[in-house]
Contactin-associated protein-like 3
Amino acid sequence: AGGWTPFVSDKYQWLQIDLGERMKVTAVATQGGYGSSDWVTSYLLMFSDSGRNWKQYRREESFLGFPGNTNSDSVVHYRLQPPLEARFLRFLPLAWNPKGRIGMRIEVYGCAYRSEMVNFDGKSFLLYTINQKSMNPVKEIITLKFKTTQSDGILLHREGQNGKHITLELVKGKLILFLNSGDANLPSPDAQATLTLGSLLDDQHWHSVLIELLNTHINFTVDKHTHHFQADGETSLLDLDYKISFGGIPRHGKSMVLPHKSFHGCFENLFYNGVDIIDLSKKHKPEILIMGNVSFSCLHPQTVPVTFLSSRSYLALPHPSGVNSLAISFQFRTWNRAGLLLTSQFLHRSGALVLVLSDGKLKLSLCPPSQPVRAITAGAGLNDGQWHSVSLSAKGNHWSLKVDSNASSAAHSLRGWVDSADTYYFGGYPDNSSGSGCESPLGGFQGCLRLMSIGGTAVDPILVQQGVLGSFSDLQIDSCGITDRCLPSYCEHGGECSQSWDTFSCDCAHTGYAGATCHSSLYEQSCEAYKHRGNSSGLYYIDLDGSGPLGPALVYCNMTDSAWTSVQHNGSHLSRVKSSRGESPQPVIFKYMASMDQLQALIDQADHCQQDLVFHCKKSRLTLTHLGKSSAIADFSSRELAASGCRFMKFLYSQHQDHSLESTKMLFPGDREPGQ
């Protein structure tokens, strides 16, 4: 009476709501048990479409739960920004009044949610011929939601002339927007660009995508993160063909050389410039070509993941009765480089097996009593956050360990005795050891497992959750709680982000910066600062804005009475400027060893700035042009230069802090004073 109060107050209790269908949930509110000392002080809000695969709703990227109540009467209300769409909600108490028990009254606010869905089977796609009336010459907008359990697949593809194309592809759980402008005037690397957003997007939950094409500008949004991109050159990104494919690439695709995997999963509310593509497909409109088998509903795979939350977590499962063979398979994903995945003691004290993740590799150890340990390793880099499949089997005295099912993965074998086991411990052991004669210095596994099978019999984690099968400790069943702490990356200045289950770190090597997030510059801000330290002339890195966005630049510091900063470039060699036909000036292009932003910052900080060039001439016409706040043009005719016997001239551009051109000096060999 007066609210929900479970008989036992612990962290494995929850209150679950079935809304009957997917709804748009905009807010939640909680209250304690009526007239009691029972209330929840913090809780997690979980949501699901199927009731078997749950995801935590995070407030502003927070890993913590919702603050709850401080008494039994007051109502604590939270508006969900952004709202969520789900059929099932689950309130999971984390903490409660220490002088009472778990007690909750809840309210959920929202409204009906309508959507159109299409399901791709990994071999099908939609080809849409764009109605020119729906095309906007200034902007094109594509919106959709998707969900999948596959880490790779094509979401959309559109081509143009000269190899131009735009492709949105899921690669290892991340969305990558490939752009090729097809501009023949740009070098190959400049004509191509890749924009990457998202991570762990193969979690069988909905993710939203927004692509805005604005001539040479693109806004690319995945969930709540946006990437802005400005294309080089003058070629419009909107200059594409009138056909766009969703879910795969037609075989006649001209620009795609490497094979690409088609999408396997669901799309929802797919729109191009406001046109409902899925609705057109359902109505078999002529502008839509359906290739392969598609359905207009989204199936819910019955896969139930399990999260091992800490080094104390474990899952104990019995060996199936009547099964004599030893065959175990499962999939796992983690960021940790090491952890205990599986251990078991064989019957009759005949030894044990231990399967660990060590330095990103799998290691299987067989430990016969009073005999040396036998071990094999397989795989590499398995702590990349991706799902990896593991298959362990024994037949006769032959053991086989296989990681992932691709063709490049070979089975690793080991000879040893085989005996049946009574219980298998996944992810850890009750007393935090290996539970066997094999000493395992590693801690428990932190990550997710799914698709577990023992002796050819699939394990249903829901039965474990209900207490019908096996036992466990510190698990989160029916949810994979892995998060990417490097998205967004807090590492500055190009530092490489790496992570474990609960922390992240930055590798600042070769960045010129140090500190936890590569924030502090290793270099002085100017040659003047090096001079004050007593350094002599030479090459130095300077960081003009300290810990700001500009990186370090390599310059030559000339320590005279003043500290001169010289920026090197690649234009020291002689270049012929006379055109072969004498028709037009010949441009000479060179690059400094600093970016334009770094050069501008150096100029802004300098008391005086100059640029030297040398011109070798014979009966030539020279025009010097400076464009800035003021312009000065000196036009010397070939007669004047010939009269002066010009063979060599040196020009010195002097620039003051107001960025105006002071003078152009011509130095003639033999002249005592330069001509002005």
Summary: The longest strand covers residues 76-96. Helices lie at 188-191, 277-282, 461-465, 527-532, 596-605, 638-643. The two ends are 99 Å apart (CA to CA). Confidence is low (pLDDT under 50) at residues 253-258, 626-649, 655-676.
